Structure formats: C-alpha cells, structure tokens
Amino acid sequence: MTTYVIGDLQGCFDELQALLEYINYKPDNDHLWFVGDIVNRGPKSLECLRFVKKLHDQGKADMVLGNHDFHLLAAYSGLEKFTSKSDTLTQILEAPDVDKLIDWLRQQPLLVTHPVFHAIMVHAGVPPQWTISEAQSYAKEVQQQLCRPDWQDFLVNHLFGSEPKNWHNSLTGYDRLRYIVNAFARMRYCDANGKLEFKLKSAPNNNQSKYQPWFVFPKRRNKDYEVFFGHWSTLGAIDAYHVHATDTGCLWGGKMTAYAIESKQRFTIDCQQHCKPKLKKNSKQ
Ligand SMILES: [Mn+2]
C-alpha cells in the first residue's frame, strides 16, 4: 500500500485524473491524502468534491479542510461578503446533492495522522510552539464545533477574521477556535512563538524579519513528525525541515504533486493552462 499526498486541487479535476494515471494509482491498494482546497477557482470543483467524498466514504482517502473549503461552507451558509468574482462555486451550490456534499465536508478534520508513519497532514501549517499532540487536540476542538448542529452560526458569525494573532492556551471561545483555524488553514508566516502574519504571501527571501515561514524555526516543537501541507503555491517543492510542500501551483499552470509517504518519492505532472483562472497571481489567498 502507498499513501499518496495530493496537493491542492482547486477544481482541477482533469489534472487530478492525469496525475492518478501517471502514478499508476490502484484504488484497492493505495490510500490518498488530499491537503485541502479541493474546490474553487478551477473549472471542475463539483467533480473534485464528489470524487474525494466518494473515496472517503469507501475508506480510501482522507482530506483536511483548507481556506477555500471553509469559503465554500460560508457561501453555502449565505455569507455573501465572502463571495468573489473569481469564485467557481456556483456549480456546487446549485447541484442536486449539495446538501449531502456540504454536510460531509463540514465534518472533515483540520489534521490527519498516518496510522503507521510519524506523518501528519494539514492544509497550511502547524505553529512552531505546538507539539504534535497539542496540534492533534486543537484540531479536534474545531472539528467538534463544525460537527455541532449550529455549525453555521459558528461559521457565519464567529469564524472569519485575523485576530487573535497570538496563541495562548488560556484563549477561550471563538477567539481560540479562530486562531486554530487560521493557523491550520491560512498561515504562511509567523514568528517563533506562533504570532501570525497574514500580509506576507510571497516566497521566502532570506529577510531578517522576525516573521518567517512557520516551519523554519530551529526550536519548532513539532519536528518529530513529517508534516505534509499545501496552500503555498509560490513556495515550490520543498522536502526539508521535516516538512513537505505539495501545492505546486497546478491552478496557475504549474504542476500537480503526489508524494508517496512510504517510498519518499515525489511525482508531478505539468498542468494545463485552461485550469489557470484570469487572476493576478496571489491577488487573494
Ligand atoms: Mn489554501
């Protein structure tokens, strides 16, 4: 059995199928990890969502929620201020099976742990001050909230926003949950104590700022596991610092990645230009 970690799909369904063919994916033997941002911006978000759900229902795949997946949950819940011209979510919102798809999606985790290897998957990152077991437990707090019947109230009224920037275990309520979601699903840069910085989105450039990519801090407390993540398309294919970056920019005409955990092999295919939206790169995360 091979566990393949697949980078951000963002509606690039045809490229996903080409990638699975390229790696000779065997549904009965292999397991797929999807790093989140299954939907939005690309042309076939509905197909991507149905495909991942079907495999998950069969016990053949896991996913974690990314910021675009939260965006879909918000759009379904009527949060119009988060809909933008570049969204391609209408097809899902108008699909006959939308309720089932959303009800499944909102119960997905923020962190998945490999059953054998010391490896986890998150969408954006794990703050340097959290141990793996702390991260696992904080991720569950959010999942439990999203599994509650009043999940839409949490999503519409309390989830979105960039505060608090700093984590402390004494944080409570929605502030606590918002930091956890922002760290797992949006973070790129932070300081050594996990203070989040959202204005920076470019690739790292060796600057002397106290804000650095979340994974480079020497005293990071979660280096005992390999951390697989997506979200950061300008970062490139990094396999260092005990992390593996898998968003290689398929949406932007770059590559789509599958990383085989057991054999430590990275596979990529070139992506078609038609998946590339008419947008300035990184104009909005
Ligand atoms: Mn993302």
What is the CA-based Rg, rounded? 17 Å
Hetero ligands: manganese (II) ion
Number of strands: 13
- Strands of the widest sheet, in order across it, are 3-2-1-12-13
Query: Segments where pLDDT lies below 50 for 5+ residues?
Result: 280-285
CATH 4th-level superfamily: Metallo-dependent phosphatases
Number of helices: 8
Measured as a percent range, the helix fraction is 25-40%
Overall structural class, as computed from helix and strand content, comes to: alpha/beta
| Strand-residue proportion | 15-25%
Structure, described:
The protein has 285 residues and is an alpha/beta fold. The protein has one domain (3-275): Purple Acid Phosphatase, chain A, domain 2 (4-Layer Sandwich). Helix content is 29%, strand content 15%. The chain is built from 8 helices and 13 strands. The protein has helices spanning 13-22, 45-57, 67-76, 90-93, 98-105, 132-146, 151-159, 173-185, and strands at 3-6, 31-34, 61-63, 112-113, 119-121, 189-190, 196-197, 212-213, 226-229, 239-240, 243-245, 255-260, 265-270. The strands form 3 sheets. A 5-stranded mixed sheet has the order 3-2-1-12-13. It has a 5-stranded mixed sheet with strand order 4-5-9-11-10, with no helix packed on it. Helix 6 crosses helix 8. The two termini are 34 Å apart. Mean pLDDT is 93; it is low at 280-285. Manganese (II) ion binds at residues 37, 66-68, 123, 231. Residues 37, 66-68, 123, 231 line the site of manganese (II) ion.
